[in-house]
Design brief:
Chain lengths: 135, 286
């Protein structure tokens, strides 16, 4: 079994990451939560969730925030097609904090006319960004 | 016969025009390179996405949630939405007029259907607004940045209309980037979604039922198709402008040559006339 596998993280705009890594933690969509991937993982297809994606390269853990898309795992190759993916350096901290606060308020208010699923996703996105930017 | 001063003025004016067209050509060339880089950069994503989608489709084949998926439902095309991608700026040769002609003939081919137009780019919007076509939405100024979020917004609006039953089909009319010299008018159906087909490359474990996964992948696919068209169209626009401005610079050079020749001839003629006057004046004194 190979000690590393290749991870490819792409957004519609560009290829973000293409590296040999030893492990990865990837958020899945729906109710499946997070999966950990090690080299030699069985082939898997899943929706990509909203959250923090991390991978380990030469013992160093790197993180990025992803939101939505699709995930393909093959024994020696992981392909993450994220609709949105941001490296820690790209994240606007103040904006994420404001978005978190706004989403919290939305969810807390018991109005009928709010789209709670949308607010929840917004909250998850904001929290993922915050988690990634705080090392 | 125009005077020397007039001719010099004309030449200067054409030279100024030539300088502008030359500069525009260089700007277009630089932008074209960047647009092409974007197209190349987006390819890994869209190709993989298509492949994965084909896999999911074949895995989910026969699943009831697939055949009844709202974004795959084919209906009689009574209300059609056309997403027309023109450029925001002119001076790009026949780029926009070809698109508009293409859109018009597309509309003419669908008699009886009511058409609404989603105008991407200023030129198409202005043209069809003057012709009182039903314009459902307009998106101006998205080509400079070419962000996925902009394309996704168009896709979400189209999906919503389609799911509501407001429109029965959505077509994309845009210029495909073939090469620097040629663009190809392309009409592409985006809704109902043309499902990519392909063989299954591995036996995947599915974290969730394939039908459900497909349901979450399909809406994004519309955005990806539109985004690909935005990038192609941006590249095609800059290529068209570059070629048009190159032709304009060459034509300006030709005009300058002709005018200069004419100027010299007029100058010669007036010198000759003056000499004749001097000589005949001197002869009259003898």
């Amino acid at each position: 079994m190979a000690a590393t596998f290749e991870i490819e993280i792409a957004t519609p705009e560009r290829l973000l990451v293409k590296e040999q890594v030893t492990e990865a933690q990837i958020p899945c969509g729906g109710a499946s939560g997070e999966i950990g991937v090690l080299p030699g993982h069985a082939p898997l297809l899943s929706e990509l969730g909203i959250g923090q994606l991390s991978y380990v390269i030469n013992g160093e853990r790197r993180k990025l925030a992803v939101a939505g898309g699709v995930l393909e795992v093959l024994p020696e190759h992981v392909r993450v097609l994220a609709m949105v993916a941001e490296m820690p350096a790209d994240i606007d901290l103040a904006r994420a904090q404001a978005a978190e606060k706004r989403a919290m308020e939305r969810l807390a208010s018991v109005q009928q006319n709010i789209d709670s699923a949308r607010a929840l996703n917004a909250l998850k996105r904001a929290q993922a960004r915050l988690a990634v930017s705080q090392k | 016969m125009p005077s020397l001063i007039d001719l010099r003025r004309r030449i200067r004016s054409v030279k100024n025009t030539q300088q502008i067209t030359k500069a525009m050509k260089m700007v277009a060339a630089a932008k074209l390179r960047r647009a092409q880089e974007r197209v190349v950069a987006s390819r890994p994503f869209s190709q993989s996405y298509e492949k994965l989608l084909a896999n999911v489709v074949s895995a989910a084949a026969g699943d009831e949630s697939v055949s009844s998926h709202p974004l795959l439902a084919v209906r009689a095309e009574e209300n059609i939405q056309v997403i027309l991608m023109t450029s925001d700026r002119g001076l790009a040769g026949a780029f926009n007029s070809n698109l508009i002609k293409g859109a018009q003939s597309f509309i003419a081919e669908k008699p009886g259907a009511s058409i609404q137009l989603e105008a991407v780019g200023r030129k198409g919007r202005d043209f069809f607004r003057r012709r009182n076509l039903n314009i459902s939405g307009e998106h101006v100024g998205i080509f400079d940045k070419s962000l996925f979020a902009d394309a996704d917004k168009i896709a979400k609006a189209a999906i919503e209309r389609y799911a509501n039953g407001e429109v029965d089909a959505v077509y994309l009319v845009y210029n495909e980037f073939r090469s620097v010299m040629s663009q190809k008018l392309s009409v592409k159906k985006v809704l109902p979604i043309p499902v990519p087909e392909g063989k299954e490359s591995a036996d995947y474990i599915f974290e969730q039922p394939a039908g459900e996964l497909l349901g979450s992948l399909l809406p994004n696919y519309v955005g990806i198709m539109i985004y690909a068209a935005v990038l192609e169209s941006a590249a095609a626009e800059h290529a068209a402008r570059m070629v048009a401005m190159d032709a304009a610079s060459t034509n300006a050079a030709k005009v300058i040559d002709q005018l200069t020749l004419y100027l010299n001839r007029v100058r010669q003629a007036s010198i000759t006339r003056e000499i004749i006057e001097v000589v005949s004046g001197a002869a009259a004194l003898d």
